[in-house]
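Incident review: delayed structure delivery

Summary: a single-chain prediction request sat in the queue longer than the usual turnaround. Root cause was a stuck worker, restarted by the on-call engineer. No data loss occurred. The affected request and its eventual output are reproduced below so the record is complete for anyone auditing the incident later.

Affected input:
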Amino acid sequence: MTRCLIVDDEQPAIDILVHYISQTNYLELAGSTTRPIDALQMVATQKIDLVFLDIQMPDLSGLDFIRAINGKAKVIFTTAYSEFAIEGFDLEVVDYLLKPIRFPRFLIAVQKAVKIIAELAGDKDIKTEEDYIFVKTESKGKLLKINLSEIDFIEGVKNYVAIYIAGQKTLVYTNLKDLVNHLPARQFTRIHKSFIIPINKITGIEGNRVVLKNVTAEILIGENYKSDLMEIIRQKMIS
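Output delivered after worker restart:
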């Protein structure tokens, strides 16, 4: 478990990160503060692995803060300003998140941080995500193990969810909102009110449709989910 500290002089920005951390099962919130001086004391006296750090704050800037902790914790900058990026990377920050921060971009940054922290600790085999789940099927009292790597896509069907594997569907007694919270967000993303897809099986985007490997069904992109999906795509895009 990676213990995190949030330092930002704006409470709404803290609240967003608190929510994101609560949705990420390998992160633990050690605390949050709007006062960087208090945060310095927390890093000095507690086990803090990762700091989400704003840059422009009164009393002590994020740049001064990272110099003061002298490598005792890894840092991800969270800021509305891009002009400090070069100096931030010179100070060996893990990543640089521009506000407003989207959850998919947040996950990319924390995965990078967790890997670095694990390697420094000598645990190169650390796992941050599970590779299977157990689900309740339409048959009463029956549980089924689902290997996440085998899932082609997931569709919401009234009071059930249909999980498609190799052209076969399994009906699960749950809803998409609950299910997506139990799936590793780096592997799966919701792209429509009716669809969750595995990110590594995307083979293309055609208008408002996602093309998936070995899937002939029409998988639509909902307008409310499009920006998060495109943020994921942009991380791998060659411009």
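Verification: Residues 103-120 form the longest helix (18 residues).
Action items: add queue-age alerting; document worker restart procedure.
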